[in-house]
# Entry
Amino acid sequence: MADIVLDKVSKSFPDGTVAVQDVDLEIADGEFVILVGPSGCGKSTTLNMIAGLEDISSGELRIAGQRVNDKAPRDRDIAMVFQSYALYPNMTVRENMAFPLRLAKLDKETIDRKVDEAAKVLELTSLLDRKPANLSGGQRQRVAMGRAIVRQPKAFLMDEPLSNLDAKLRVQMRTVVSRLQKQLGTTTVYVTHDQTEAMTLGDRVVIMRGGAVQQVGPPQELYDHPKNLFVAGFIGSPSMNFLHAAVQDGELHTALGTVPIGDRVRRELEAADAPRELILGIRPEHFEDAELVDDDTRRRGMEFEAPVDIVESMGSDKYVYFTVEGEKASAAELEELAADAGATDFAGAGGNLVTRLSAESPVAEGQTRRVWFNLEKIHLFDPANGRNLTLHEGRAAGALAD
Amino acid sequence: MAVETTTRAKLRWGLLDVLVVVFALVPVLWIASLSFKTPATLTDGNFIPREWTLDNYRTIFDTDQFVRALVNSIGVALIATLVAVVLGAMAAYAISRLDFPGKKLLVGVSLLIAMFPQVSLVSPLFEIERQLKIFDTWLGLILPYITFALPLAIYTLSAFFKQIPWDLEKAAKMDGATQGQAFRRVIAPLAAPGLFTTAILVFIFCWNDFLFAISLTSTERSRTVPAALSFFTGASQFEDPTGAICAAAVVITVPIILFVLFFQRRIVSGLTSGAVKG
Ligand SMILES: Nc1ncnc2c1ncn2[C@@H]1O[C@H](COP(=O)(O)OP(=O)(O)O)[C@@H](O)[C@H]1O
Ligand SMILES: [Mg+2]
# Structure
C-alpha cells in the first residue's frame, strides 16, 4: 500500500495533443479517488501515466515517496482493471488470475491458495475452469477484478471498469467494488465518465476538463460548493438549472423575476471588470410548490409563476418541468456539457426548468403553478470564465450573503 | 412457394459448386489416374485405369534422383518458412504496434518487392550467387525464397496482429510481464492462427517454386522436386517417363495436403473471443 503523488504532471502526444496539463494531486494511502469528466478530458491518459503505460512528458510521479517516472509498469507494483477487461482469452479463469503470480515466480501452492482466496471473495470459485469466452459480462468483469486483487499490489487503477455492464449490473458491481476497496484498504484510482458513479463511490472526486483539474474534493463538497460552472453542471442528476441573469441597479433580472443580491456579491460586481451578465444556477431540489412552503422558509427565497410542462411522479417526490421565457444562458462550459450528455440529460441551459417538488404537491400538467425557490442555494457564475461568484473561501453562500 | 424457390436456388448453387470443383479437380485426378496406369494403357484415354499398377511409384522411389529432390524440397521449404514467419512476425508486430518514422514507406517498399517480376531477377541472382559461391546450395534457394515470402508474411501477419486487442498487452505489462514475456505468453498464442496461416502460404510458395529452383541449381545437390521433375527420365532413358512424372507429381502434393490439414485444425477462428467486453 502506498500514497500516490502527481506533481505538475503533463502529457503531450507526438501529434501535439496536450491530453493532460499540470495535474497536481495527492492521493493518500488507502484512499479511493475518482477521476471524472466528459470523454476525452484526459482521465485515461492520467491513469496510464500512473500505471506506466504512457510516458510522462513533464512533472513528477511519486508512489510511496519514490519517483517512478522512469520505472516500467512491472516495477511499480500496481494492478489495473481495464474497461475492456482485457482477459487472456487462451487461458482459463484460474490461469488468468494466476498469471501475475506466475510472473512473480511464486510457488505453485501459494499461487493456488491465493487464486482460491480471491475467487471466493468474488464468487468465482465455480467458474475457475472456464474460458473467458464462456462467461457473462458481469463474470468477466469479476475475473478482471480478481486478477487485480490476487497479488495484493500497492494500488489499484481502474479505467471505467463498469461501463460495459448493463444498468442494473452496474449498480450491483458498484457496491461490490466499494466493499472490496474498503475491505482491502488499498489505494485506488478509479476513472469514470459517469457522475453518479463518482458521487457514490469515492472518498474524493477529481473533476477534469480538457486535461486540467477543475476541482478536487469529497462528493458532497463538489455538489454543494462547485468552484465553477463546469463542476456545477457536471455533478448532479438531473443537472443544475442555468438561467441568464442581467445585472442592473444592484439587482439581477432573470426569467424567474428580479433576484435581490447581498453585499458580498454586490462588491464583486462593483469591480471595474465585473461582468454585466451572469449565469444563475439552481438545483432542482431547491424549488418547492409555493403552497407547501411555511412562512419561515418563504422568507429565505422568492416565488414565480410558470406553466407546467411535464410532471414525473417518482413516488417519493415529483420532477416537474416548467417552461420559462427569456434569454438562454450561454457559456462554453454549458455547450460542452450539453454535447457530452447528448443534449437529452442536460436540459440545464434550455428554456426548460427542472424542479423537484414534494410528492404532496397537487401540481398537474397544463396548469400554471406558483413555485418558490431558495435564494440561499443560488449560485452565480461569470459566463466569461465560469467562476462561481457566490463561493467565498470554498463555501457557497447564495445570492443574499452579506 | 418460398420454400420451393429456396430449394431451387440451393440446387442451382449446388450445381454451380459441383461444376467449379470438377473443373478444378479433373486435371489433378487425371494425373493421379495416369500415375496408376501401366505404360501400355497410358494413352488409352480411359479416366479409370483398366490395369492398376504401383510400378510408377516404385520407380520414382528407386531412383535416387527423386528422393534426393524430395529431401531438398522439404528442407528448403521448411527452413525458408520458419525464417520468414519469425522475421515476418517481428516486423508485423512492430508495424501494427509502434509508430515509427518511415513506417508507411517500409510497408510500401515491402509490398513493392512482392510485386517485382521475379523473372527479371533470375539472371542477376545467378551471377551474384556464383560470385558468393552459394549457387546450387540450399542457402542459394532459401535466401530468395525468404525475400519474396517476407512481404507476404508481413502483410498477412500485421492484419492478424491488428485484430489482437492492445489492452491485452497492457494488461500483461501491468501483471508484471516484460515486453518479451508479454509477446511470448499473451500475444503469440493469440496470433497462432495467423502464424499458421502465414506458414501455410509461405510453405506453398516455396514448395511450388519452379523459376528459382531451375535457374539457381545445377545438380541434384540442391535441386528441388519441381525442377527435378523436368529432368525426369524414368528408370532407364528408353522408357517413357510420363507415368513416373505423374506419380512424382502426386507424391509432391501429399506434403502440401498434410501440411494444410495439420495446421488447419489450429486455425480456429474466434480464438480471441472473450478477451474484451461482452
Ligand atoms: N495516442 C494518442 N495520440 C494522440 N492523442 C491522443 C492519444 N491518446 C489520447 N489522445 C487524446 O488525448 C485526449 C485525452 O484522451 P483520454 O485520456 O483517452 O480521454 P478520456 O479517458 O478522459 O476519455 C483526447 O483528446 C484524445 O484524443
Ligand atoms: Mg478513457
User: Anything to note?
Assistant: The first helix of chain B runs from residue 2 to 35.
